[in-house]
Amino acid sequence: DITSDVALVRLYGVRIPVLKRSDGAELGWPFDTLDIERFTA
Questions:
Q1: DSSP at 33
Q2: How wide is the angle at C-alpha 12 spanned by C-alphas 19 and 24, nearest 5°?
Q3: Cα→Cα distances 31→4, 19, 23, 25, 40, Å
Q4: DSSP-assigned letter for residue 15
Q5: Residues 6, 10: Cα–Cα separation, whole Å
Q6: 10-40: b (≥16 Cβ within 10 Å) or e
Q7: Residues 1-41: tens digit of each pLDDT
Q8: Which of 8, 18, 19, 27 is 20 to 30 A from residue 36's alpha carbon, by CA?
């Protein structure tokens, strides 16, 4: 729940980050299997 944190609301708004790599890249919903394959390659 990000609604109580103004900084997180500004950062994410309506985007839902689901996966995050060690380099900081995030994959947000919606995505499909091809997006996951590219993100994890």
A1: H
A2: 40
A3: 26, 11, 19, 14, 13
A4: -
A5: 6
A6: eeeeeeeeeeeeeeeeeeeeeeeeeeeeeee
A7: 778 889 988 887 777 778 999 999 999 888 999 999 999 99
A8: 8
* Token pair listed for 30: 């919606």
Structure tokens at 39: 């993100």
What is the distance between the alpha carbons of residues 3 and 35, in angstroms, rounded to a whole number? 28
The two counts, helices (H) then strands (E), for the chain are 2, 2
Strand partners, 28: 17
Total Cβ atoms within 10 A of residue 4: 7
**Which amino acid is residue 11, in one-letter code?**
L
